[in-house]
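Before going further, it is useful to explain how the protein records used in this thesis are read. An example of such a record is reproduced below.

***
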Amino acid sequence: MPKGGKATWVHDDCGKSWIHPLDVKRANGIVAIHEQCDPPCPRKITASEYLERQGATEPRLMR
């Protein structure tokens, strides 16, 4: 369990880049879940690229 005692999704299909259906809300959630993936996992990359194409990026997503 991570610091602070909060449970998180671990390895939430990190190796899979296919996300369907994908919308802004879901992409933001995926980026948040995979925030600690370093280097960015395929899932985080797909969601981040989707948000960039939609013009829906937030400053915190631009890491």
Q: What stands out?
A: DSSP finds two helices and no strands in the chain. The helical segments are 24-33, 42-54.
